[in-house]
Amino acid sequence: MTNTRLVAYALIAIGIVALLSRLTPDAGWLWIGLVAAGFLFAYQREHVYPFLVVGSILMGVAVGILLEGNWHWPGAFLVSLGAGVGAIDLAAPRPNRWPRVAGLG
Q1: Higher per-residue confidence, 18 vs 105
Q2: In angstroms, rounded to a whole number, what is the distance separating the alpha carbons of residues 47 and 33?
Q3: How many whole angstroms separate alpha carbon 5 and alpha carbon 9?
Q4: For a Cys staple, 76 with which of 9, 12, 67, 89, CB 3.0–4.6 Å?
């Protein structure tokens, strides 16, 4: 399967999951987590860096929605989103990248 076809299938899956998540308001974090797991699986299989970025950020969003929306922990969304972004550098470290992203370099 080519990368273009894999991306097309992933986008179709995202659209379907977005439509299905409208059925129940409490399961939004679960659907986002499933899409994130799909992107992380695609990264593990294809080793395409953008899959890792999208999967990690979506996983942070899913955990943040669960903690802040369902368990009512204020501020947990931003902390989990930051943990998702930080996990990118743990999985595939690239030197001298984060200072430029943060605008420090």
Answers
A1: 18
A2: 20
A3: 6
A4: 67
Report how far residue 75's alpha carbon sits from residue 57's, in angstroms, rounded to the nearest whole number. 17
Locate 1 and state its tokens.
């399967």
Residue 37 · residue 55 · CB < 8 Å = yes
Please identify which residue in the block is written with the tokens 């939004």.
Answer: 28
pTM metric for this prediction: 0.69
Rg (CA), the chain: 15
Q: CB-based burial of residue 80 (10 Å sphere; 0-12 exposed, 13-18 middle, 19+ buried)?
A: buried
pLDDT in tens, 33-92: 888 988 999 999 999 888 998 999 999 998 988 888 777 888 888 889 888 888 888 888
